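User: Sequence in, structure out. Go.
Assistant: Echoing your sequence, followed by the structure tokens.
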Amino acid sequence: MRASCNACPRACGVDRQRRRGYCGMPAELRIARADLHPWEEPSISGANGSGTVFFCGCNLRCVYCQNRRISNGEQAGVAVSPEELERLFLRLRDRGAANINLVTPTHYTDQLIPILQKARPKLGIPVVYNCGGYDSAESLKGLQGLIDVYLPDCKYFSSELSLAYSAAPDYFPVAMAALEEMLSQVGAPVFDENGLLRRGVILRHLVLPGCREDSKALLNALCQRFGNRAFLLSLMSQYTPAFAPADAPKNLRRRVTSFEYEDVLNTACSLGFEGYLQARSSAVSHYTPAFDENDLRKLLDPL
């Protein structure tokens, strides 16, 4: 762990051995949930579910965050040692996980590198890096050869929106540089005989209410820079206004309309992207995972 943490684009320079960084986390690894998760994209979840490990903290400040309890420090999570985290990976694998899915790992990249170097040869299943897209390309370079599938968000084109909704005015250029590094490491999508993604990038974009023009501008910019076959596009309609605070902008206090989502979907299709779309029925809080620390501690208990 760096004495002065610059692992993410915030480059807050905090010594996380002494105090918490912008991400809200100390240097020790803290996780909120580990389980088989059936609600990722089909090529990630597979038949048994993705072996998700949710890390506490986040370097974004999304006003509509559905995981706010763990992203903003409201729920502290459970501290784990590198040995415990490796054991957790192996237990999820033994339960039939299609992969090991690291959720919001950005601010723990330094700590994860030696753990993955040790654990990955034993796993026999892909490792997925599931992030908000606001990642340092330089930090990602340290993951070369350790990550099989990158699963980043790509949230905004407009700096005004990214500032207002996630406190990150430089989100788009940072996310583009991060995506370029991810693609350079894993290349075009590769599937196994069961249709599971073994290698590649799935890029997620959540269509926000009132923001369809920004979504369309983003898709055009992505196609212009990377083409339409470098990654799979997962176009999501699951925005859930229940997670937005009462003082959020008016547009964020409603669901995405069918017209809005279909307009963005039509743009994605016209650009030739391939990937996944999402039914509007997914825009309910039921699909948000429960963060039960007692269940997590049971999974961490030595055999």
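User: And one key feature?
Assistant: Residues 128 and 149 are 5 Å apart (CA to CA).
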